[in-house]
């Protein structure tokens, strides 16, 4: 790639008019500078991503992404459709392992431990790093069972004949966990009288909060959310937004959103991906929205393309 400016020059000069030629389609010869994505924050990162690349067959969907994610905060991932946000998010708990065509190269560390280690325990990993998807996907079971399924699978709650035989029936612990998780997800008041009803009878917004409660029930450290409010009405959306802000006091939240106002409202830092699977800029949310370094990022967040 050719560009007359080198990194040291950009550090002091910032963006210059001659640096880019942007079109309305967002095409540009702008070159991403390391300083734009080298986000400086206090404390140690919860997740540390280094030179992450993803290919689907020959399609290079994510290119050399390096990004440290601070704990107990909300990190928003934004960018136009197809730029690799979901791909990136799925890399953070190895969900892409399930996609046959995907090839992943690079490193993701959770508190300094490589999650792509061939000996990594994927069940344990996905317990520590939970995920909430775009469309609510409750199990076709009761509200209560949706919450207790994970903890039972992980052996935190024992139920059934065998457990009873050994005097280890944890029904009370289960009820407490169900109540705590539903309260955390701001759903308890709406469902406390119908815990044994099928979860598919809930509204979309309620189902999404149930999925968040289900994710919280296994006591994760990181919660990945892929456009969790995109299918919801404004009231349900604002409930999810309040919830995300509340959760970030105790959890590390990484959230994909197409809604710029939402990213500005709820996130502490924002990462902007642009076409071609490139992380272009990553910084405090205020900085990204008020004074981005990249012309393409400015054009994108002000709605000139995307
Ligand atoms: N399972 C898959 N198999 C093949 N290609 C895929 C697969 N998933 C994603 N891709 C391709 O990878 C690129 C990035 O897709 P991704 O879903 O990560 O984008 P995105 O930023 O989440 O888009 P959107 O905002 O529309 O959800 C796209 O070109 C897409 O076609
Ligand atoms: Mg996506």
Automatic annotation (TrEMBL):
Ranges of biased composition (kind: Low complexity): 11-26
Keywords attached to this entry: ATP-binding, Cell membrane, Membrane, Nucleotide-binding, Transport
Pfam families: ABC_tran
Alphabetized InterPro entries for the sequence: AAA+_ATPase (IPR003593), ABC_transporter-like_ATP-bd (IPR003439), ABC_transporter-like_CS (IPR017871), P-loop_NTPase (IPR027417), PstB-like (IPR005670)
A GO MF term: ATP hydrolysis activity
Acidic residues compositional bias, start-end: 1-10
Disordered: region residues: 1-31
SMART domains cross-referenced by the UniProt entry: AAA (SM00382)
GO biological process: phosphate ion transmembrane transport
Annotated signal sequence range: none
Domain ABC transporter: 47-301
SUPFAM superfamilies for the chain: P-loop containing nucleoside triphosphate hydrolases
GO cellular component entries: membrane
Protein name: Phosphate ABC transporter ATP-binding protein PstB
